[in-house]
Amino acid sequence: MAETKYEVTYIIRPDLDDAAKTDLVERFDNILKENGASIIDSKDWQKRKLAYEINKYNEGLYHIVNLSAEDDKAINEFDRLAKINNDILRHMIVKRED
């Protein structure tokens, strides 16, 4: 089965300190790896003003992960855990065609 490439973008709440943000990113990178995904890169994008307020926040820290996986197990687990994590304001998973 061919590997599928994905791009995961998530917004971290801006008042998280650097150590907590690093722990959060490592934890979610590990969730992907433990469920069979290969991470191509995982990088901070930038702090941006949000188009609308989310949980009383007007800005957020954007983080982007490019990965490949043979099945959607890693993506499903990331999605499930990101929905219940209070430090992640929003996330988006896109299947890449390149």
List the SSEs and their pairings.
Blueprint: E1 4-12, H1 18-34, E2 38-54, E3 57-69, H2 73-83, E4 88-96
Antiparallel strand pairs: 1-3, 1-4, 2-3
Can you describe what's shown?
Belongs to the bacterial ribosomal protein bS6 family. One of its GO terms (cellular component) is cytoplasm. GO terms for molecular function: small ribosomal subunit rRNA binding; structural constituent of ribosome. This is Small ribosomal subunit protein bS6. Binds together with bS18 to 16S ribosomal RNA. The model has no long low-confidence stretch (mean pLDDT 95). Helix 1 runs antiparallel to helix 2. This protein has a four-stranded antiparallel β-sheet. Helix content is 29%, strand content 49%. The chain has one domain: Ribosomal protein S6/Translation elongation factor EF1B (Alpha-Beta Plaits, 2-Layer Sandwich), CATH 3.30.70.60. The protein contains two helices and four strands. By secondary structure, the protein is an alpha+beta fold. The radius of gyration is 13 Å and the shape is globular.
CATH-level-4 superfamily name: Ribosomal protein S6/Translation elongation factor EF1B
Model regions low in confidence, pLDDT < 50 over at least 5 residues: none
State Rg.
13 Å
Strand order in the sheet with the most strands: 2-3-1-4
* Basic shape: globular
The figure for the number of domains is: 1
Report the sheet-strand fraction: over 45%
Count of individual beta strands: 4
